[in-house]
């Protein structure tokens, strides 16, 4: 997986689902991710906690803007580069 990998909407939703399934334990949510998605980039506990905090604060699952090198992914643009 490239170092500039950006999670998709479905990935962020899975992070939230796993976080809930593990009773808000981000470390256990990471283990659940590894179990259910072997071979896929694994988010760390801080990322999962951040997704939850963002969703609670803003109602958004994905970050508003994600910068990756020279590219800008804008959630309000339907997730297009």
Task: Describe the overall structure.
About 6% of the residues have low confidence. A two-stranded antiparallel sheet has the order 1-2. The chain is mainly alpha-helical and 81 residues long. The chain contains 3 helices and 2 strands. Helix 1 packs across helix 3 and helix 2 crosses helix 3. It comes from Bemisia tabaci.
Topology record:
Blueprint lengths: L8 H13 L4 H11 L8 H14 L6 E4 L2 E4 L7
Antiparallel strand pairs: 1-2
Helix pairs in contact: 1-2, 1-3, 2-3
InterPro entries: DUF4817
Protein name: DUF4817 domain-containing protein
* β-strand amount: 5-15%
Compute the number of strand runs: 2
Order of strands in the sheet with most strands: 1-2
Computed over alpha carbons, the radius of gyration is 13 Å
The percent of residues in helical segments reads 40-55%
Q: Which sheet architecture does the biggest sheet show?
A: 2 strands, antiparallel
What structural class do helix, strand and pairing data support? mainly alpha
SSE order in H/E notation? HHHEE
Taking the alpha carbons of the first and last residues, their distance comes to: 18 Å
On the 0-100 scale, what is the average pLDDT? 82
Q: Stretches where pLDDT falls below 50 for ≥5 residues?
A: 73-77
Shape: globular
The tally of helices reads 3
Produce a short descriptive summary:
Pfam families: DUF4817. This protein has about 80 residues and is mainly α. The protein is built from 3 helices and 2 strands; from the N terminus they run αααββ.
């Amino acid at each position: 997986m490239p170092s500039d990998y950006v999670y998709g909407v479905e990935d962020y939703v899975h992070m939230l689902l796993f976080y809930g399934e593990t009773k808000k334990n981000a470390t256990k949510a990471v283990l659940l991710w590894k179990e259910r998605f072997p071979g896929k980039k694994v988010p760390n506990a801080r990322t999962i906690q951040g997704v939850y905090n963002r969703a609670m604060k803003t109602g958004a699952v994905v970050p508003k803007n994600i910068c990756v090198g020279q590219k800008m992914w804008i959630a309000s643009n339907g997730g297009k580069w």
